[in-house]
Amino acid sequence: MPGIIGKKIGMTSLFTPDGKNIPCTLIEAGPCVVTQVKTVETDGYSAIQLGYGEKKAKNTTKALAGHFAKAGTTPKKKLVEFRTDEVANFTAGATIDASSFEEGEFVDVVGTSKGKGFQGVVKRYNFAGVGGQTHGQHNRGRHPGSIGACSWPSRVFKGMRMGGRMGNDRVKVQNLKVMRVVADRNLILVSGSVPGAKNSYVVLEK
Question: Tens digit of pLDDT for each residue in 142-164?
């Protein structure tokens, strides 16, 4: 199985047999439905498309409604495609759930980080500010200071660390250990933190 779509439920912790407390993220992994199987002969590459989450038919476009009907499933909220060379093992309409994971294996989790809006350099890049409130400075505590541009180069170099939009980026966290699998409820516990807010969509890759 190349991967699965899920939802971040929240965080908790587990105690190992030797007494260590491991912070974990609780993820609802599936159930996902195979909505399309792509092959080299028909699409030029091999992949499977998974759908997750129930969506009302009235909120689904006719094109997508026909796409889901062809796969023999109800409309889904989230669609993700996974490249794989093992497309022969999948059929449209099949279900993939948390039982495909095993305790002790490692996964990569992809999510969208929390959006924080426009932020300054102190919050965005951990700058210290320009100094204290003395020597005539009373309102520069969190400012970036000089950015180096003068008569040369007469412009700001690309990549200069300045204030700007922070968060709401695609983030992948690699090699998170699967600590526990609750297959009957489609829940898994992975060690460490996962990007995104509660109830946000995540993609687990093996």
Answer: 889 888 888 988 999 999 999 99
| Strand partners for 3 | 205
**Over the stretch 22-71, which tens digit does the pLDDT of each residue have?**
999 999 997 999 999 998 988 899 999 999 998 898 999 999 999 999 88
Residue 58 belongs to some domain of the structure: yes
Phi-psi region of 118 (alpha: psi -120 to 50; beta: other; left: phi over 0): beta
Helix (H) or strand (E) holding 170: strand 170-182
One-letter amino acid at 184 equals D
φ/ψ (deg, to 5) at 46: -105, 130
Taking the alpha carbons at both ends of the chain, their separation in whole angstroms is: 7
Look at the alpha carbons of 62, 67, 72, 78 in this order and tell me if their dihedral is positive or negative: negative
3-class DSSP state for residue 64? helix
178 close to 103: Cβ distance less than 8 angstroms: yes
Residue 42 lies in a domain: yes
With contact defined as beta carbons under 8 Å apart, do 34 and 70 qualify? no
- CATH code, domain carrying 83: 2.40.30.10
Task: Please give the residue range of the domain that contains residue 44.
Answer: 3-124+167-205
CA-nearest of 135, 131, 113 to 122 is 131
pTM equals 0.82
